From TrEMBL:
Protein's name according to its UniProt entry: Transcription initiation factor IIB family protein
Domain Transcription factor TFIIB cyclin-like: 18-93
Entry superkingdom: Archaea
Provenance organism: Natrinema altunense
Pfam families: TFIIB
InterPro entries: Cyclin-like_sf, TFIIB_cyclin
Amino acid sequence: MHSARDRIEYEPWLEELETAAERLDLSTEARSCAVDLFLADVPASDRSKRAVLAASLYAGSLVAGEGRTQGAVAEAADVSRLSIQSRWKELLEAAGLEPPRW
């Protein structure tokens, strides 16, 4: 659970996350998971925030069983696919979840 202060501080980023989630037609469960993952690991650098936002969306879609491709999430969040590929597993592990081993 995250504080209201976190949500207020990162509101512009959460709005971007919501916009990208809308483009991906993600469920409320996937969006909620993505928000939790993002808020649990918000980087200090604004430059890195968009990549973590995208990785959170990708991981949230997997957790909710709605798996979107890294390419689709990258396009919706305006990042490279590599930005997602290099971060999503560590986000899940940091949250105490085990990433899939395909």
